[in-house]
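Whether sequence alone determines local backbone shape is best considered at the level of individual chains. Part of our work consisted of pairing the sequence of a single chain with a tokenised description of its backbone. This step matters because it turns folding into a mapping between discrete strings. For completeness, the protein is quoted in full, as a sequence line and a line of structure tokens:

_____
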Amino acid sequence: MKKTVDEHAARFSEQAAEYDDSKSEEYCACADLVIEHAAPGPDDVVLDLGAGTGAIALALAPDAERVLARDISEGMMAEGRRKAEQRGLSNVSFAYGEFRSPEVDADQRVDVVTSNFALHHLADDEKREAIREMAATGARRIVLGDVAFFESPDPDAPFYSPEVDDPATVGTLVEAFTAEGFAVTAVERVHDQVAVIVAERLADLGAGDDPNGDAGDDPEEGGR
């Protein structure tokens, strides 16, 4: 991680009021795909990591039993709570939580984990730890939208901020999911440097399910 957790939290708290108006077209496309693939049912509990102001959490709340929104920025969470109240959503709770320490009670059921445009702040070994924590929740499905490389990025046109961001390749992320007993069932290419990855727990896939799903782009294009 190129910045400390506290430094990232302070940076995003400063941006909270204008954050929703600063989102790129790719961010929005990514968020839409994460929401579509998460597809919680009325009895599902969703854990949204790096929830920010609630783009994913608030969109999923009407279809889920409960959404646990976790973030490190008090400013972002305050915006999320304000929007939840404004929309009359009582089944969303915003609380402090890090990727590698999401602060979820041990007896709390989690069915689906989501995250959008946040994991790339971690180094690759930290991302693997984060995915291990996602898997440890017992969720059957994890949907990750993030800055990630399908190919070598153009150094003259980075989609991310090299001074604070540390994106992985798509292949690295896929390998991290498979190492935790998940099958990657879809890889959506939003941009050469933006991907949505859908992972399903192998134990929860039916006998007739194709573990490769509709995985479109070859995840190994990303290398390691």
Summary: The CA atoms of residues 175 and 224 lie 9 Å apart. The beta strands are 45-49, 66-71, 92-96, 112-116, 141-149, 168-169, 182-191, 194-201. The first strand starts at residue 45 and ends at 49. Residues 5-222 form a domain with the Rossmann fold fold (CATH 3.40.50.150).
